[in-house]
Amino acid sequence: MTGEATNIHATAITIGRTGLLFLGPSGSGKSALAFSCLAAAKPLGLTASLIADDRVLISEQSGSVIAKCPPSIEGLMEIRYTGIVRMPYISEGEMHFAVRPVDPATAERMPPEDEQVDITRSIRLPVIRLAATSANPLAVIIAKIGASFR
């Protein structure tokens, strides 16, 4: 069964076979964290691809959460203070986790166990909270989810 796609404000990437959907308001650090994860994956021997930056078409297909890129922004990513850059990309991928950038000055030190977020009315994903200023966001994500990047 294929659900209708909803256009959301987010950034979607894959590391290995794991999909990460970065959510948060404009300026919260979504693109910067996603870019850092993409850059850190290669030296670890992990495949990494951008799906979409800023706008993501999200839907449910046969029980999986699928992120697609609107055609007008394929392969483009905004790096704050640098501009729009062209990146290797894939046109769609399955999402497994929602990553929420948080401000360390105001965030709860210990997030709720098994936290999930509603992406749409019918789509939920488990949440990984990540400091927007994290020096190595991929290391934090790997520590949180373990060997899921195979």
SSE order and pairing:
Elements: E1 6-15, E2 18-23, H1 30-41, E3 48-61, E4 64-68, E5 76-79, E6 83-86, E7 92-95, E8 97-102, E9 116-118, E10 124-131, H2 137-145
Parallel strand pairs: 2-8, 8-10
Antiparallel strand pairs: 1-2, 1-3, 3-4, 4-7, 5-6, 9-10
List keywords for this structure.
eight-stranded mixed sheet, 10 strands, 150 residues, 43% strand, single chain, mainly beta, two-stranded antiparallel ribbon, 2 helices, globular
Provide a quick synopsis of the model:
By secondary structure, the chain is mainly β.
Can you walk through the features of this model?
There is one protein chain. The chain starts with 5 loop residues before the first strand and ends in a 5-residue tail after the last helix. A hairpin with a 2-residue loop joins strand 1 and strand 2. The radius of gyration is 14 Å and the shape is globular. It has an eight-stranded mixed β-sheet, covered by helices on one side. Strands 5-6 form a two-stranded antiparallel sheet. The chain is mostly beta strands and 150 residues long. Helix content is 14%, strand content 43%.
